[in-house]
Please model this.
Amino acid sequence: MRILMINARNDTNVSHSRKGMYVPLGILSVATYAEAELADRVAIDVVDEDVEDLALDRLADYDLVGFYATTFNYGQTIAYAKRVKEHGGTTVLAGPHPTALPENVVRNKPCVDFVIAGEGEVPFVQLLRHLLDEEVDIAGIPHLTHRRADGDVIRNTARHDNNLEALPIPSRKYVPMERYIDNYQRAYPQHEHLRHGSIMTSKGCHWRDKTDGGCVFCARHDEGLRFRGIDQLWNEIRILKDDYGVNYIWDAADDSLNDTEWFKAFVDRRPKDLEDIGFFIYSRVTPIRPDIISYFQRLNVDEVYLGVESGDTGVLKSAVKGQSLKSIRRALQLIGDGGMRYFPSFVLGLPGESEESLEATYRLCEEIVDQGSLERASASILMPIPGSPSYAKLLQRLPAEGVPLDKADEIDLVALEKYWADHYTEVDHATLVHYKQRIDDLMSGTAVTFGTAGEAEDLAAAE
Ligand code: B12
Ligand code: SF4
Model:
């Protein structure tokens, strides 16, 4: 079976930060697993439109086309899916957007045959086995939503929880690695000596599990904090170094530092030949403690991305952020004193946001600038993205006001962002835009690098 997997381009007005710098790890993981399980019964190609355009006539060449769909490339994904159907191919959607809205997508879009919610490796292989006429009952395929012959949309109840240690290392052979490295170096010229490679050391976030959804703006969907195997991770890093000359790792995992013992073991077990590799990591504020700082130093961490979000403890609380202004200040101080740089991100428009809380955030930004360890910074306005608690709040409210959000698959994020500001904050949307601009202006002259507005939006979204 000939299979194409696509990360379609972002087709919204939301600027797309760090475009073409991070390989589509989800697609690579699913493709690697499928080829390992099904061998020469499948032949898989990948197109990541962040680094290469898709030639439309290619869509006719495949039996099945699978898509990684976010809310931001969903329109483009559907446009491609329609073309695939015109050529008689099968379409499968996965990724954060269909994961949040599986039934709406299949019900509203006849061009979508299947949605796989959440982690796709095992369900995708089972679906392929079903399509390859092996005896796999479609009703038992985990996380699958599909349309039956009678038109009914069925969401399977079967579940599968990935054991990350059992999955193979995602192969980079499917994508043009040099383009990602090149894009990063061009975006951050002061880092032109860095050849970065992206990895995910773990999946999930303990805070999201503990609070039943986590921070109000977060649309990450992985459940349960689970780690990859330490030795396998170092092997993956060795492959990146040996095959692609990588000397810097970008780990976008949500919450790897939460398990301090795991993180320490990861550092302790670093092989000698990989001691020269640098790291850029994401962290929550709360795990940053003195003992962790010494491990950062041993791991050559030079930059820590921190979800700071606000300078007002009340607003942090209403955003279910699980951190206070005190813990934020402590984390920033520890990172700076440890000789590393930080990349704080802020979200404006958290529940209960007021002129006072916005001023508090602005003052915190001034403090950060004065500390002198700023590498980059970002500020964005809360966008209620499907899959986030903020979107869930709107789902409870808008249908009663006559807006059928509960049945929608195409989401007007601009309208939702404004609605959110009007109904969940004490300021209007224009005030949020004004403060975003003030923070952008303050940070832009002071950080070593300051991303574009797009970067700002991504990173608040990404934490
Ligand atoms: C790294 C990252 C990026 C990178 C690269 C993304 C990429 N191409 O993979 C960059 C920085 C470029 C980026 C950009 C953006 N991102 Co981003 N990003 C992430 C992050 C932190 C990790 C993604 C990842 O690599 N995970 C690891 C892999 C192994 O897992 P996975 O991607 O979930 O894939 C699994 C399943 O989804 C499924 N699967 C995936 N693809 C396929 C395909 C098929 C056919 C099948 C069967 C299964 C399958 O199986 C995979 C393996 O288990 C996520 C948060 C998160 N934890 O997921 C946010 C996240 C995906 N990003 C988000 C956002 C908002 C954005 C931006 C809009 C930000 C901006 N303004 O620029 C853009 C939009 C990009 C676009 N084209 O739409 C949101 C998306 C929410 C939504 N509902 O759409 C997330 C969820 C973060 C959040 N806000 O909560 N992002
Ligand atoms: S924003 Fe970060 S800390 Fe909050 S729930 Fe999402 S991954 Fe967890």
In short: Residues 205, 207-208, 214-215, 218, 220, 254-255, 284, 307, 463 surround iron/sulfur cluster (ligand 2) (CB under 6 Å). The chain has two domains: 2-153, 180-462. DSSP finds 17 helices and 15 strands in the chain.
